[in-house]
Structure to design on (92 residues):
């Protein structure tokens, strides 16, 4: 069953990324990680450990492509998503 609510939580990350003005090639690299995360969570049969690694990779990709200052809006959106994901865990 497609988890619309969780997938929708990726929208602020995508929106912030769109506003960053990255060239298409660099945008594709970051979007690939977001797409992998979306595919991981879309049916709810995902691994928290894999999600954590994808979130970490997404942060690092944004920092590499934009730097921490210019990437701040995206990094903030990623942090909010990560908090929501942690809350889903039994130990969260």
């Amino acid at each position: 069953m497609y988890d619309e609510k969780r997938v929708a939580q990726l929208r602020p990350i995508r929106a912030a990324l769109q506003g960053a003005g990255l060239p298409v090639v660099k945008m594709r690299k970051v979007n690939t990680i977001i797409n992998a995360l979306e595919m991981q969570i879309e049916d709810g049969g995902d691994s928290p450990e894999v999600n954590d690694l994808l979130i970490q990779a997404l942060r690092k990709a944004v920092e590499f492509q934009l730097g921490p200052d210019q990437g701040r809006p995206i990094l903030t959106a990623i942090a909010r998503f990560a908090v929501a994901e942690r809350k889903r865990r039994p130990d969260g």
Observations:
- The two ends are 23 Å apart (CA to CA).
- Residues 45 and 85 are 13 Å apart (CA to CA).
